Amino acid sequence: MNLKIKRIVMKHVQENLPIYTFVVVLFLMGVIFGAIIVNSLPYESKKDLYTYISRFFTELSKGNVASPQNMLAESFTNYVQYMGFMWILGLSVIGLPIIFILLFLKGIVLGFTVGFLVNQMGFHGFWVSLASVFPQNVFIVPLFIITGAVSISFSLKMFRQLLMKTRKTPLLPQFIRYGLFMVLVCLLLLFVSTYEAYISPVIIRSVVH
Fold first, then answer.
1. pLDDT tens digit sequence for 191-205
2. What is the rounded end-to-end Cα distance, in angstroms, of the chain?
3. What is the structure's pLDDT at 158?
4. 3-class DSSP state for residue 152?
5. What is the pLDDT of residue 165?
6. 194, 50 Cβ separation under 8 angstroms
7. What phi, psi does 165 have (nearest 5°)?
8. Fewer CB within 10 A of the end CB, N or C, for the chain?
9. How many helices, marked H, and strands, marked E, lie in the chain?
10. Pick from 113, 137, 129, 115: nearest CA to 36
């Protein structure tokens, strides 16, 4: 069973390697752009944002944050909405440009977050970003890239089948696989959200003290 799944995954990656390459490059461009934005921010904007972050870390260290249950629900909802939106866009060709934009924006947010913490807090900011940003993004970033690539791939397949003179293959089995993929994504997002709600605050609290 594991070998079968491995073969399916390898075949999918090989068939869609150009898409994965494009998605990764687009995401990395967003990360770089986000880091550049940090240096172009006016001093007052940096000061205001740093004050807000410092206040958040202070409240976190005192335990004055939302309950883990609320954090879990909010984190999971945000992730599912973002990933689900890409999944829905994959059902139509006209959604492709928006998927590209979402991938780029995700990279910008990540690059800006890490860049700002390091820019304002120096080496300590590196440790803070390592504790608060890195662990969950080890899972979120690959999952985000894969979801984007799968959505783009499915959209292009639909375009080729519906509008071009190619050999028709049943759409229903493809749609079922596409839906099962989203179910798997949601399960993985639940795992990441649980980490963010119950474990991440404890780690961040130990670093910011």
1. 999 988 888 888 877
2. 47
3. 80
4. helix
5. 57
6. no
7. -85, 75
8. N
9. 8, 0
10. 115
Give residue for tokens 């803070």. Answer: 128
**111: nearest Cα among 45, 42, 164, 34:** 34
pTM, rounded to two decimals? 0.86
Which positions ≥6 away from 107 have C-beta within 8 Å?
Answer: 26, 27, 28, 29, 30, 31, 32, 33, 34
Pairwise CA distance, residues 74 & 88, whole Å? 21
Nearest Cα to Cα of residue 93 among 185, 195, 163, 178: 163
Average pLDDT, the chain: 84
| Contact status, residue 61 vs residue 207, Cβ threshold 8 Å | no
Secondary structure (DSSP) of 71-106: HHHHHHHHHHHHHHHHHHHTTSGGGHHHHHHHHHHH
pLDDT per residue as tens digits for the range 146-183: 999 999 999 888 877 777 655 566 777 888 889 999 99
pLDDT for 91: 86
